[in-house]
Design goal:
single chain, about 150 residues, alpha+beta, 2 domains, four-stranded antiparallel beta sheet, three-stranded antiparallel beta sheet, globular
Length: about 150
């Protein structure tokens, strides 16, 4: 969900009530609940957050807008991110000079090119950041941690 003040990222899990709120001015990230999302927010589906990047115009949020299933590991689905959106925290570019606008446009173009190259994979249930060998040698406590905690 997008409002002029915040981005709200809502989980699609059954029974999940938590919503990630990202303040577009302070860049503060907090957890809130669904009822705090204003009804006026523009809503659209995303499949994940790739991250943030700071360019000339300010901070941008990079989100995954399309995905393709590429396989499974131990019954965990592996996805390939195939399309992205780059969302500006800033509501306007009026604070930039013509040269800064041009530089920002070039950096956005470079970023779009990098995102178009194959190689962005993710799983919502399996840890792709560790090798199978390393995972086999971790403690039971580590195995029980959520992917976010790892």
């Amino acid at each position: 969900h997008i409002t002029p003040e915040k981005f709200y990222v809502e989980a699609c899990d059954d029974g999940a009530d938590d919503v990630l709120a990202i303040d577009r001015v302070s860049t503060e990230v907090t957890l809130t609940v669904k009822k705090d999302v204003p009804p006026s927010a523009v809503t659209r589906p995303i499949y994940g957050i790739l991250g943030t990047i700071r360019l000339v115009a300010g901070t941008y949020l990079i989100v995954i807008t399309k995905k393709k299933k590429v396989g499974e590991i131990f019954n965990h689905t592996i996805w390939k991110a195939t399309d992205f959106d780059i969302l500006s925290y800033k509501k306007t570019m009026l604070h930039l000079t013509d040269i800064q606008l041009q530089d920002n446009k070039v950096f956005l173009s470079m970023l779009t090119h990098v995102l178009s190259v194959d190689g962005f994979y993710f799983s919502t249930t399996y840890d792709l950041t560790h090798t199978l060998q390393r995972l086999a040698n971790t403690s039971p406590e580590f195995q029980e941690m959520s992917l976010l905690e790892r």
